[in-house]
């Protein structure tokens, strides 16, 4: 009889362990589902209206630009010693991933060279720097290298053909509770990213964004946000993420406590513990005798 009871206790303990692991997995899945549901609710109430507003604005902007053919001059530092070349920005279009529930919106245009530009660059370091700069801008160019007696690069001739692709991408970031704006080849080569909260994403901001894209305004936030204000915005976003994380941990702790209470109240668990206690007492008595 004793071996049978011992086997029963082991079997029930194994099942209880598996049940606890299964409950933990289910709890994690429920927490993840709750987190995603919270992000979806925030997107629907806060970010979606901003995305639709931005789409309408950019659609109207590009439509008007096509009629008035409002090309703008843009100076890019493409020449040696960061000397600039004036390109003409135009060919505007808008792309969106969904008209009903967009999460990404993109304004596309191009900065064209009036004609190809050719220049020489001396020294291997400068040749490499210009190559990397052209690659970051993503414009089409040709390069003819010249080498010295040791077959090392001595100089190169660059022929810039263009155009430079210009992009403004707006992303609805539910996880960080903000809108991410990614600017490619606007202020600098490559991509520059800034974040803005939905309460700041209004008609006034969109007007500044339009002027910024058309190079009528040098800095997107110059009329509103100082360095101190931008720092406060970043701190606000960080604080919001911390609060969300604390809330998630509270929910997780409550669910874990509930799962533990349910687990310990199961008859099989109480029986297993009672049997274990009786076995321990019997073992202690036998050892004493």
What is this structure's SSE topology?
Blueprint: H1 2-68, E1 72-76, E2 85-96, E3 104-112, E4 117-122, H2 124-137, E5 141-147, E6 153-160, E7 164-173, E8 178-184, E9 191-196, H3 203-213, H4 227-264, H5 267-288
Gist?
The chain is α+β, with helices and mostly antiparallel strands and 289 residues long. Helix content is 53%, strand content 24%.
Structural summary, described in words:
- This protein has one domain.
- It is elongated and about 100 Å long.
- The strands form 2 sheets. A 6-stranded antiparallel sheet has the order 1-2-3-7-8-9.
- It is of the alpha+beta class.
- It contains 5 helices and 9 strands, in the order αββββαβββββααα.
- The model has no long low-confidence stretch (mean pLDDT about 85).
- Helix 1 packs antiparallel against helix 4 and helix 1 crosses helix 5.
In the sheet with the most strands, the strands line up as 1-2-3-7-8-9
Number of helices: 5
Low-pLDDT regions: none
Proportion of helical residues: 40-55%
Q: How is the quaternary structure best described?
A: single chain
CA-CA gap between termini: 22 Å
Domains, number: 1
Tell me the total number of β-strands.
9
The overall pLDDT average reads 84
Based on the model shown, name its key terms:
three-stranded antiparallel sheet; alpha+beta; 289 residues; elongated
